[in-house]
Amino acid sequence: MTNLLKNKKISETPFRKEVLSIFTKYNNAIPLSIVEKELREYNRITLYRTIKIFLEKGIIHEIIITGEKSNYAICQEECVTNLHYHQHIHFKCNRCGIVSCVEIGKFPAIILPKYKIEQLEIQATGLCKKCNA
Question: The pTM is what?
Fold first, then answer.
């Protein structure tokens, strides 16, 4: 965890390490309310600045499902400042409400004549593996 902050050239503060540890303990995306609930004491502005830095440096990515609050998930190591490399679908379970990053073998190719796609996100809703069992 400490190496992640160093590798992304972010100064290590106890608060940043604490916020990062919250994200790393979840296997799915989480809303900011969970981070707020798990922090012992925090300043709201400091939290928002930390989230912004983590987003900008490619430590976390934001998932916005239509009509829902933002969720955040840990990025892969390939993500860098303002450029995320994700080959997954953002999936929200209609039963348990969990938002997950589901890895897929190959992202579909979409060609738009005279357009250059630089980032593509796919969102899906339904029943997750656990709820569908």
Answer: 0.81
